[in-house]
């Protein structure tokens, strides 16, 4: 059995470069396109690969797909940052707030598209917002350092 360090997505990840006059695209683990909530990267890596393939084939849309992927990964980073700040009482509160609507939503939707389900979960259990104060425990400092991505040469 082998083990290796799993890459973690950060806001600073830029998965393309121009090297020796050629466009180079990184995807999957090499581009840190890994959800930090589940440490899963298959679906996100495939999304990055599709965007890179379209760019290489001249079909465009690389930045649009990459931005969408980065928004999704940033949401997972936000969720992970909140969970890292949870104390035992916070987990107890979260479990106490679980209701049938939330359980049904979580059973139907996968974790690869957290943005699609987050609002529905909050609508199903508005009292989840009572846990929002956990985010103020320093998370906005890391978001403020988010870098701006340069435009890739292939669009």
Q: How is this structure best summarized?
A:
With 155 residues, the protein is mostly helical.
Main traits of this protein?
mainly alpha, two-stranded antiparallel sheet, 155 residues, 6 helices, elongated
Question: Can you tell me about this structure?
Answer:
By secondary structure, this protein is mainly α. The protein has one domain. The chain is 48% helix and 5% strand. It is built from six helices and two strands. A two-stranded antiparallel ribbon has the order 1-2. Helix 1 runs antiparallel to helix 2 and helix 4 runs antiparallel to helix 5. It is elongated, with a radius of gyration of 18 Å. The N and C termini lie far apart (41 Å). The C terminus is likely disordered.
Shape: elongated
Taken together, the total number of domains comes to 1
Q: Which stretches are low in confidence, meaning pLDDT under 50 for 5 or more residues running?
A: 139-155
Cα-atom radius of gyration: 18 Å
How would you characterize the largest beta sheet?
A: 2 strands, antiparallel
Strand content: 5-15%
Alpha carbon gap, first and last residue: 41 Å
Helix fraction by DSSP (H/I, runs of at least 4): 40-55%
SS-based structural class? mainly alpha
Q: Which series of helices and strands comes N to C? A: EEHHHHHH
Strand order of the largest sheet: 1-2
Topology:
Elements lengths: L15 E4 L2 E4 L16 H15 L5 H24 L2 H10 L2 H9 L5 H11 L14 H6 L11
Antiparallel strand pairs: 1-2
Helix pairs in contact: 1-2, 4-5
